[in-house]
Design a protein that fits this description.
It is found in: Mitochondrion matrix. With 167 residues, this protein is of the alpha/beta class. The protein contains four helices and eight strands.
Length: 167
């Protein structure tokens, strides 16, 4: 039984090659990239209020944060990078300018790069899961990642649809 450990300097997928009469050598196959979609939602610790006309949640002066399930997806992407399975972790978010705060949080956690798909629509009410899945599909097409990670669901609508539609 031969056990070979990848040198810590390598963070890409590698293969061990052997030719008769030579030493073993590492061959870099490809840089594996992961994309993680993150969503900006009302902070889970905040008690939400309903508007007077009972049409939606009152969003003025409400603390927003990254969806906890998206945060778990970012953490898993970081674990995969630490293990050497992923060389680059890219986070993506759709929404208005304030969605960049969520991307900055993911970058502070350790993500390598962030992509902000700017829209004038609010992700909590106007931007529907199918539209988000189509936008993410374009990002996946352009970035060509090996892996796409999404949180199980968003705590604002609990719809759990975007991942299925993206797949």
């Amino acid at each position: 039984l031969f056990v070979f450990e990848l040198p810590p300097a390598y963070t890409r997928a590698c293969a061990l090659t052997f030719r008769p009469g030579t030493f073993f050598s590492w061959t870099v196959i490809a840089a594996m990239r992961a994309v993680v979609a993150v969503k900006r939602v009302v902070d889970y610790a905040v008690k939400v209020r309903v508007k007077a006309d009972k049409t939606a949640v009152e969003m003025d002066n409400v603390k927003m944060s990254m969806n906890p399930f998206c945060e778990i997806a970012v953490e898993e992407g970081l674990r995969l990078r630490e293990k050497g399975h992923v060389s680059e972790l890219i986070v993506v978010s759709c929404g208005p300018d304030k969605a960049s705060e969520t991307l900055r949080q993911a970058l502070a956690m350790g993500a390598d790069r962030a992509i902000h798909i700017k829209t004038s629509m609010r992700t909590d009410q106007e931007l529907q899961p199918l539209a988000v899945a189509k936008l993410l599909a374009k990002v996946v097409e352009k970035e060509s990642p090996t892996l796409v990670l999404l949180g199980k669901q968003a705590i604002d609508d609990d719809s759990n649809q975007t991942g299925s539609m993206l797949a």
